[in-house]
Amino acid sequence: MKWILTCLILSFLIQYGLPGKELNLATPDKYPYADLKGGRESYSLAKEKVNEARLYEFYARQADYYMANPDEIPEVIPSYPGLDGAVHGHWGKNNQNNHNDGRWNDGDQGEHFTHVVKGKGFNVLKGICVKLGDGHVLSTCFDPQSLSYRVVWNGWIRFEPHRWGTSRNANVDEKPWFALAKAEMPDAGEYLGLRRFGKRVVFEYRIGRVRVEDEPWATKDAFYRRIDLRDAGKKLSLPCPVMDGSLKVRVVESKGVTSTRWAEGELEIEGAKMNARLIIRVSKERKPAGEAAALAHLKAERKIEKRWKEVLKV
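The chain above was modelled as a monomer; its predicted structure follows.
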């Protein structure tokens, strides 16, 4: 309660100033370099409604003004007044309450996207969604808090237009292949991060003393994982839950391990040597179409490549 009250007081002081004192802000009514109509010439989106009250190029214009008018330099130079030039209050003219914009759905978000991910029957607080397969045939959501793939589905995430799509989660509307309502972090599990190799996404985590690299991929009929064990281990259990009984989990290739077995939502591995590798498949069909191409992709050398080749103009 004290924390909330403190935040409210600070917000009030920032917006309205200290009692009896005036904040030293460069407002448009006093300083010509803070005029909201200036500095817009080089910005292609300056005429968009959301930017109609935005203050552009403030610091450059302020510096140019005082260099041209040194006799007007005050003892304390006024500070930046805010995105909308302190004209429309703390929230600005176009804020979350009166402006909806769903164009985030139309953009290219790349091969992976992190957000709170929600769908019917599941909620992943720190979900990392990944596009899978040539031409994006499936998607998955990796949960770094449980080291598991919580959902696999046809399609991609959708953003609500409220507050430009940032405040109401990433939504999965399509019916998933499978979805896990809950998942727990394995004993001695630790998420380390992810690596990108062009359009390939590789998750890295540790279970006990064994460091694991886990790369998802797919065809339209199957979900694959290439798992590299960077440390040796006598016995290891990896999360591999699947909630649909019609989907079968199979190890299609293995190297450097004594035995593997899938049971009760876990992949049990014994006798793993350093740099051992497995490729597992989740599918309904015993021999799904396109498997040869999927395996060739997963076994290909990972190369660090430039993903975004376009030059964006502002």
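Helices lie at 2-16, 58-68, 291-299.
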